[in-house]
Amino acid sequence: MKKLALLIIGLLTAVGATAQTAVGQWRDCLDYSMVLHVEPAGRYVYAAARGGLFCYDTVDGTVTRMNKTTGLSDAGVATIAYDRTSRTLVVAYNNSNIDLVKGSKVYNLSDIKRSAISGDKSIYRIRIRDGKAWLATGFGIVVVDLLRREVKETCYIGTGGTYTVVSDLVFSADSLYAATAEGLKRLSVDEPHPTISERWDADPRLAGVTVTMLDYLGGRLLAGGFTYDPGQTNLYALDSTGVNAWNGGVVRSMHVGGGYVTLTHEESVVRYDSTLQKVDSLTSYDWGALSCFDAVYTDSLTLWVGHEWGGMFRIRPSGNTYLMPDGPFSADNVYRLVPFNYRMMLCPGGHTTVYANAYITPNLLTSVGSRWTSLDRGNGMLDGTADLVDAVVNPFDTTETVAALWGSGVASIRNNQVQTLYNETNTDGALTPYVLGSFSTLRTGALAFDDKGNLWTLLSNSNYALAKRASDGTWSRYATSQMASLPSVDKLVWDSVTGYLWFCGRENMIYVHDGVSRMARVNPNNGSKLSTDDVTALVQDRSGNLWVGTNKGIKVIYNGYQAFANGGVGEMSPVTCSNITITNGLFSEYLMAYESITAIAVDGANRKWVGTSSGGLYLISSNGLEQLEHFTAENSPLFSNKIITLGIQPRTGEVYIGTDQGLQVYRSTATYAESFALDDIHAFPNPVRPDYDGPIAIKGFTRDGLVHITDASGHTVYSTQALGGQALWNGRTANGERVASGVYYVFASDAEGGNRSVTKILVVR
Questions:
Q1: Which of 48, 141, 411, 759 lies at 20 to 30 Å from 284 by C-alpha?
Q2: Residue 646 contacts by C-beta under 8 Å, 6 or more apart in sequence?
Q3: pLDDT of residue 14
Q4: Which whole-number Å values give the CA distances from 119 to 84, 122, 279, 570, in the listed order?
Q5: Three-state DSSP state, 608
Q6: What per-residue confidence (pLDDT) applies to 505?
């Protein structure tokens, strides 16, 4: 059992100050815009969105996020149901895990997830009856006792007791009906042995129809299914007189309640009475056409709608309410994260493994704290484009952000709107597309600014793999065929020490160019004792070394300055990619040799955060010799062990983690440090209230500054050293005793005693 540490936020229209995350804590950045299921539960109404679950309190008007960072057991909600008798919310996940949520407590049932059942274990629908949850699954029916919080029975109702897909269930007064892959089946509700497949009778009334949804109203069994086209649902009413077709089309949900049946279509909600006569319909709301996935009436005048892109709506004659927690749209497509000052930019594009377009709608999502904004597409500059895969802020003009569009070129963005789209037509031919017959595409996959304000662009599948927009706005291109013919490349690093450009992609090779004419290739296995065949990540640390992620761990380039020692005319460079050897007692191994690396990010203390394809998230020391943290989906709130990308917010130390289950944030202990102390040195939380006993983060110092905390009399109570630009204090003296109430002063200086700085912390006991 776990406690659900719910994060309460205001309504979308009332969200105020930027959220702060305490050191060592997690928060989500999920997309709550597409609501697939709505579940009224008395005072509360639950919404299962594509990104996560949230709850609306109809009394106090608060919206509560519910996900793995707040205490749930998993990520990716498949369906939900609420039992009013036991006051339990049943949450089924895409991986077949189950949570039972009662108040602030979460009880996990992982039986189906852990089972050795082969094939489909999906949970398609949950029905509640007499304190039990009946689960329609990909292999049969699972019955969960909600009071005992345990799986009571598993029913394999296929012919001969075999597995069969059950897509829905419904109870009538005397029967339980199941929509199965073998057709409609019926069981008496008084049957003491539902696990015996022979007790289930085949119902021949819908022979030839694949039934996908069921409900019951006014003595009629209501069934929805298809004969040929799964996208078109035909609805039938079955009673003692026979079978009658009564509706059809694209039906996304069907709910019975209050003597009515409510159908959700693509752009309408229609209500029928017990005789299946149309009562009313709704096709629009305040903003336009009603595009929804689910709709439920809780009384004759109150309709709850799961909208396709607007969250959850409450629609009433007296006025409508729109409910959705803050989060980035399309955050399930996390391709690349790019930090700049207090901003974090999310690029939701992508490409296939053969470098073809993924055709994801182009967008650039930008956050400051918990508030996210999207690109304004109103001027049509992005029409016909797709897959925004990288973005950088111009350090010499921070009002400009530049983005790479896989297949379309480079976009200059100001005021959150594309002002110019650069391609082969307006760059003097510098952006050279890949052409094959009549097919042409401009695969600009990565960007970087250098210290002179020049913008460098990486082009995949081009013999001019590098292009430059100079600080004066002129464009030029650089022939690279001497070292590679049409390389597939999408990762670019501008070397702040040498000024070189390092890039890589699909080939097991690293390329380096001096930005003028010299170029060379670097074999990732040169100097390595562990042979690898895929370069997956490339980043420069704060010491100037290049860290290389591969399919078998990490390597480091320490001698990048020797890149052109063999001439610089496209030959193989003598640069080495060295393994880091970890010694553990009598045994030695290479750093993360058993992990496939997907992303590396460097924090303010020069430590490395490392994402993997299946092993979760690591934090290693600056030299790689010590593992400091290892977060997995099993031991932490991490959504998934598959990490796509990482980004570290330099000012706050927050680590943004893009997984295949969405985006989340972990507040680290290190922040970026300036060479001088900031004017705004501050602590969080401040004041420190009586119920808080966690770390107090103080940031804004010079790198690795010496920190002393004194009481009002000037007596030092605690001393430490900053990690990068941030120090932590546990609110205790050097002897481990909690300090008394009062004002405490923070003094800091660098190792030479310069750059002294001060702030205050109020402690309330």
A1: 48
A2: 337, 599, 600, 601, 609, 611, 617, 655, 656, 657, 658
A3: 31
A4: 33, 9, 43, 51
A5: strand
A6: 95
pLDDT of residue 164: 97
Q: Which CATH number fits domain 596-672: 2.160.20, 3.60.70, 3.90.1150, 2.40.10?
A: 2.40.10
CA distance 551 to 537: 10
The tokens describing 46, both together, are 């639950």
Predicted confidence (pLDDT) per residue in 416-451, tens digit? 999 999 999 999 999 999 998 999 999 999 999 999
18 and 27 Cβ atoms separated by less than 8 Å: no
600-614 pLDDT tens trace: 999 988 999 999 999
Helices (runs of H) and strands (runs of E) counted in the chain: 1, 71
Residue 573, C-beta contacts closer than 8 angstroms, at least 6 positions apart: 512, 520, 521, 522, 562, 563, 564, 565, 566
Question: Is 340-595 CATH 2.130.10.10?
Answer: yes
CATH number among 3.40.1010.10, 3.40.190.10, 2.60.40.4070, 3.40.50.300, domain 682-763: 2.60.40.4070
Of the candidates 131, 103, 109, 132, the one whose C-alpha atom is nearest the C-alpha of residue 44 is: 103
pLDDT digits (tens, 9 = 90+) for 312-321: 999 999 999 9
pLDDT above 90: percentage of residues in the chain? 76
Residue 633 phi/psi, 5-degree rounding, is -65, -20
- Amino acid in position 414: R
Please tell me whether the peptide bond between 685 and the residue prior to it is cis, using omega within 30 degrees of 0: yes
Place of tokens 């207090």: 342
* pTM value surpassing 0.90: no
Q: List the chain residues with pLDDT less than 70.
A: 2-20, 331-332, 671-680, 702-703, 750-757
